[in-house]
Amino acid sequence: MDVDEEDFVFYGTPIEREEDITTRKKKAVAEASGQLRSVVPWKQEVRDEEGRRRFHGAFTGGYSAGYYNTVGSKEGWTPQSFTSSRKNRAEIKRQDIMNFLDDDEKEELDNRSLATSTQFDTFGFTAAELARQQVEKETKKRPSAIPGPIPDELIVPATESIGVKLLLKMGWRRGRSIKDSSATLLKDKEARKNFVASSADNKSAKSADSELVENDTEACSYSPTDDGGIPKSTPVYVINPKQDLHGLGYDPYKHAPEFRERKRARMLGTKETNPQKPFSVGDGLFGFKSGRIAPGFGIGALEDLDVEDEDVYAPGYDFEEFQIKEIEEPSRPMIENVKLLGNKESGFLSGFKPASNSDYQLERYGPPDIPKNFVPRHKFTAPLDVGNKLSGAMPPEVPPPEDNSLRLLIDGMATLVARCGLLFEDLSRQKNQSNPLFSFLFGGNGQDYYERKLWEERQKHKDRNTLQLNEQKFQSAEKMTAENRGRILGEKPLERSLKNSATSSSSADNVNLQFHLSDTFTTPISFSGPAEVVKPFQEDPAKQERFEQFLKEKYHGGLRSKDVGGSSKMSEASRARERLEFEAAAEAMEKGKRVSENKDPSRLFGDVLPTTGLQFTSGVLEQVKIGKEELVKESKLPKREEYPWRPSSLLCKRFDLTDPYMGKPPPPPRPRSKMDALILMPDPVAAAVVEHQMMPVGNQSSSLQAGTGDKAEGFVTEDIKVDAENIERPVDLYKAIFSDDSDAEDENNNPAVPGEDPEEKMEVANKTLNRLIAGDFLESLGKELGLEVPPDVPYPENRDRGMPSGKDSKIAYKGGKDMEQRVNDRSSDSAGGGNLMVSEMRQTGHEGMIHWIGRSNPETSNPANGRKMAEAGILERSGDENIEPAATKEEKKTKSATHQHNNSGSDSSEDERSRKRSHHRRRRSYSDSESSDSSDDSRRRSRSEGKRKRSSREKSSSRRHSKHHKHRHRTSSKRNSHYGSDKEHRKAKDRSRYKD
Amino acid sequence: MSNAGVETLPKKEVNILKGHEGAVLAARFNSNGEYCLSCGKDRTIRLWNPHRGIPIKTYKSHGREVRDVHVSPDNSKIISCGGDRQIFYWDVASGRVIRKFRGHDSEVNAVKFNEYASAVVSAGYDRSVRAWDCRSQSTEPIQIISTFSDSVMSVCLTKTEIIAGSVDGTVRTFDIRMGREISDNLWQPVNCISLSNDGNCILASCLDSGIRLLDRSSGEVLQEYRGHICKAFKMDCCLTNTDAHVTGGSEDGLIYFWDLVDASVVSSFRAHSSVVTSVSYHPKDSCMITSSVDGTIKVWKT
């Protein structure tokens, strides 16, 4: 056997015998292959791949790990010695996963990462990298002569790649080309040439290096040091030779590679592609619709292209065409120019041929062919501007026709036509075809005269126009020099009060100014012209006179009496008819001037106005309109308005100013529309009315003091107030919505009213109806404006007997002198309450309320008024506040029976009213009606109490009650103000946080 | 007098500041006229030395075009606004954004510092003028003024007032000290407003190609300057440093000089190839910068 073995040659590695494998391992392998399935599951053992039993069962030690279930090893477990990280931070060793891995696991991990074998490192990159790493390591270990990292070029891989090895084995030597030498040489030169000429746009980063290398190769092709050895004889870039005029290494498309494609397409000489339609780069990227986007930048990928991204500044031409133009582009036409020059002068340059078709062509267009029958004159149906264009020569002077009326007619017609254009003539010609008087328009009698007159009028008109223009110029110049120059120079204007009065007055000024302006710019002759001339009512001289008067008034405005030209003798109906007739005639005359002008407002107004007494017709509008042509700019004078504006306190602080509104309630909000202003703005009329209203109260008190004790006295004051109410609409509207509750209720409680006649009932019913309508309107208006419509204005409601102050006075008559005192008391009290309430309102900053309060503030002198207002204020602000104590609610329930009784006891008209009231309430929101009901009831109760028993004791109790009311209000207002201050306080805190 | 003034008008082009890609929307001198800031459609703000013609710094952070820029009196902060509806508060030296004020509902047209650079007032397309606080950390507006009925194009600040011009035709003065608002309706969309150096007049450029000189105390139009084209773009106008002339750009690239008093065109010349968006006059010298849609800023001197 031994001898045999000596003779044998063994190849390969012998396969291990089965016996050599440990039984343990065999078992494991068998187990893995699933051969031991025969063993019942509970007898199977879990073993690792080494065959060791690791799991011992849940009750016999669990999972064994480490060295016999210890953390350590056979040698024992030594804990890592503690090293303070304080002193030697640098030495702290990072814990690595490798520290915790077993050997086999490490091996596994290593296997997972791919590494190149140096064996197949064809180009030597990996070797170079390794060498570099090695060098780095070495330099770290020992100080190098050259500080810093060693340049890459100095490091050469120590190993050779397999390719080099192979080549060397095949007989290749370094520094030689692989190809046969002669061919290589030639090709090399070519390549080099190409390379020099090649365009830079295809140059890769590598090419810079290779360029150097190649140069070296060329210079010393047999140099043994040439390690880059294998000449890259056919560089890729030769495919794209350099053809542009850019500098070497300059890539115009470096940052815009999308243009390279485009250029290539062009370089291919695709003439057939439409040059007018360059494919847009933007199209692909963003898909702009307009294509007119600001040059140079796009928008973010996530943003949409909006309208504002478009280049609003872009002129008419296309930017893209612009961008495509390259630097070398203009050179071509230049060369061609030279060529053309050469062509012209001395044939062709040597080496050049004349181009068969040059793309440099200037397209020339000949003048258009004029048709033979073309007449170089334009014909207008109607002249645009008659005044400036005087047609033809002046017609010969013609004696006027004998007929005086005809002469007048012709004169007037000519004036009109001159003023309004030929259109008027056409119109009147159409209208008066059958009228023999107008025959001069159709070439009949007096045509010559008409033409002459027309010409004269036109001349005149033109003169006037120029005159007006001059005047205008002069005026503007004068305007400048007089006072404004001084202002420009910084002088103080002389005692000139600012126009900071109410807006209405300023607007009135404005109108006035316009009026003056129009007055200066429109000559009165032009207006009286049509009135004098056209006489549509010639057959009736009186009528004609009236018509003229009518026209005059129409155009000039001002006050006029209706008794004109004996029209007073006529009946109303015939007068109206005549007026209509006049209107129609005037309109017909106007039509010539302003064809497409709708009916002017003043006339409409005139129609509506009743024709009794003096009438005011506003001529202003008319005149302004006529003067429009001249006043297009001048009529738009700057308009100044002034409003209160509250800067925030922080803003004041930042501007280093004291807050003008410091501690003051906020200013009333600006009315947001004209309608709003109409209702809410304090206008002079209203102010006057307020003053007016204050007087009656004074009257009343004086009458009380005088102790006349007459009912009539009270009614006198009431009458005055009725008048005031008639004038003052706006407040009435508010009252209309909200006050019917209270006054109806007052009526309920005052059955003993004098003078309950049907006429009054009618009036009351009408009024309520009006109020309902007005209330609806106001509510919707409020909604539209987003404004909270304030609740009931407790306007002195004296017309009806329910006015509390009236009641008071009545009581006073009965109660005598001491009651007088009481009234005064109450008035002062309630006034105070009202004021408190006002301030409370302001503090809560309730919008829309403020106007109202501001309006009715003067009225708080009225005692009951003040109280009511306070109540209203509470009603308004509390759905939740529950000002009504629970006790009063209880009372209300108990008293409701009496209240019912009271209601039933009232008469039919009151029933009707209450029905209306309930209807009105239904329109309100539920919670609102709830609260108002409750308070109403309480009030009603107190009243009824006071009314039922008129003993002084009861009165005093009612007074107490009212005082209780007042007290309540005051506390509530105090509370509110407290809230307000609290809020202020908090705000201030917030602000202080912002402060630096 | 006017003749003497005409000679001193800056009509000679000294420098061209190039760098903006696309339209330059505004160019402004700083408070002492040494430097200027420009902003444009390329979303950048650039700081220049116009006298030497060199760019100094570029501020990039805006997401859309920058419409207006203003530098604080101490030259340490910049405020800018633009199409991204934000107002950026920059630190000049570091070029970083200190704060962004958000709140405008659409593009912000103009922005200005107040005297102490403690607050900023901006005017936006959302018909509002907003005041912002620079002192605190708050980015909420101090106050919102929304009485305008159309886009607010321009805003000017005095020591006590905020003046803003709007497309609704009004120039509104908000007097902080008096707590009132004065609205002067010019009936023409107001494009740009500019205060005279004495503070007594407002120059309001309207979109009917007319610049109007408004007396602030009375609200009267003292003079109207015409000849240029201003119909569609936001363009600036201003008075010269001596208040003797009014200057403004035109949509055809011309610069106009008017005599303040008699409103005659004293001089006009072609400055740019496209719309002149902004003119800014040196506070002391006879020097002017103009910016244009053609992407250049030009410095003009006598």
Automatic annotation (TrEMBL), chain A:
<feature type="domain" description="SURP motif">
    <location>
        <begin position="409"/>
        <end position="451"/>
    </location>
</feature>
<dbReference type="GO" id="GO:0005634">
    <property type="term" value="C:nucleus"/>
</dbReference>
<dbReference type="GO" id="GO:0006397">
    <property type="term" value="P:mRNA processing"/>
</dbReference>
<feature type="compositionally biased region" description="Basic and acidic residues">
    <location>
        <begin position="797"/>
        <end position="828"/>
    </location>
</feature>
<feature type="compositionally biased region" description="Basic and acidic residues">
    <location>
        <begin position="480"/>
        <end position="498"/>
    </location>
</feature>
<dbReference type="InterPro" id="IPR000467">
    <property type="entry name" value="G_patch_dom"/>
</dbReference>
<feature type="compositionally biased region" description="Basic residues">
    <location>
        <begin position="915"/>
        <end position="924"/>
    </location>
</feature>
<feature type="region of interest" description="Disordered">
    <location>
        <begin position="786"/>
        <end position="996"/>
    </location>
</feature>
<dbReference type="GO" id="GO:0003723">
    <property type="term" value="F:RNA binding"/>
</dbReference>
<feature type="compositionally biased region" description="Basic residues">
    <location>
        <begin position="946"/>
        <end position="977"/>
    </location>
</feature>
<dbReference type="Pfam" id="PF01805">
    <property type="entry name" value="Surp"/>
</dbReference>
<dbReference type="InterPro" id="IPR035967">
    <property type="entry name" value="SWAP/Surp_sf"/>
</dbReference>
<feature type="compositionally biased region" description="Basic and acidic residues">
    <location>
        <begin position="936"/>
        <end position="945"/>
    </location>
</feature>
<feature type="domain" description="G-patch">
    <location>
        <begin position="159"/>
        <end position="178"/>
    </location>
</feature>
<dbReference type="Pfam" id="PF07713">
    <property type="entry name" value="DUF1604"/>
</dbReference>
<dbReference type="Pfam" id="PF26093">
    <property type="entry name" value="HTH_TGH"/>
</dbReference>
<dbReference type="InterPro" id="IPR000061">
    <property type="entry name" value="Surp"/>
</dbReference>
<feature type="region of interest" description="Disordered">
    <location>
        <begin position="739"/>
        <end position="760"/>
    </location>
</feature>
<feature type="region of interest" description="Disordered">
    <location>
        <begin position="476"/>
        <end position="506"/>
    </location>
</feature>
<keyword id="KW-0507">mRNA processing</keyword>
<protein>
    <submittedName>
        <fullName>OLC1v1014053C1</fullName>
    </submittedName>
</protein>
<dbReference type="InterPro" id="IPR011666">
    <property type="entry name" value="DUF1604"/>
</dbReference>
TrEMBL record, chain B:
<dbReference type="GO" id="GO:0005737">
    <property type="term" value="C:cytoplasm"/>
</dbReference>
<dbReference type="InterPro" id="IPR051980">
    <property type="entry name" value="WD_repeat_MORG1"/>
</dbReference>
<dbReference type="InterPro" id="IPR036322">
    <property type="entry name" value="WD40_repeat_dom_sf"/>
</dbReference>
<feature type="repeat" description="WD">
    <location>
        <begin position="59"/>
        <end position="100"/>
    </location>
</feature>
<feature type="repeat" description="WD">
    <location>
        <begin position="17"/>
        <end position="58"/>
    </location>
</feature>
<protein>
    <submittedName>
        <fullName>OLC1v1008876C1</fullName>
    </submittedName>
</protein>
<feature type="repeat" description="WD">
    <location>
        <begin position="101"/>
        <end position="142"/>
    </location>
</feature>
<keyword id="KW-0963">Cytoplasm</keyword>
<comment type="similarity">
    <text>Belongs to the WD repeat MORG1 family.</text>
</comment>
<feature type="repeat" description="WD">
    <location>
        <begin position="269"/>
        <end position="302"/>
    </location>
</feature>
<dbReference type="GO" id="GO:0071013">
    <property type="term" value="C:catalytic step 2 spliceosome"/>
</dbReference>
<dbReference type="InterPro" id="IPR015943">
    <property type="entry name" value="WD40/YVTN_repeat-like_dom_sf"/>
</dbReference>
<dbReference type="InterPro" id="IPR020472">
    <property type="entry name" value="WD40_PAC1"/>
</dbReference>
<keyword id="KW-0853">WD repeat</keyword>
<keyword id="KW-0677">Repeat</keyword>
<dbReference type="Pfam" id="PF00400">
    <property type="entry name" value="WD40"/>
</dbReference>
<dbReference type="InterPro" id="IPR001680">
    <property type="entry name" value="WD40_rpt"/>
</dbReference>
<dbReference type="GO" id="GO:0000398">
    <property type="term" value="P:mRNA splicing, via spliceosome"/>
</dbReference>
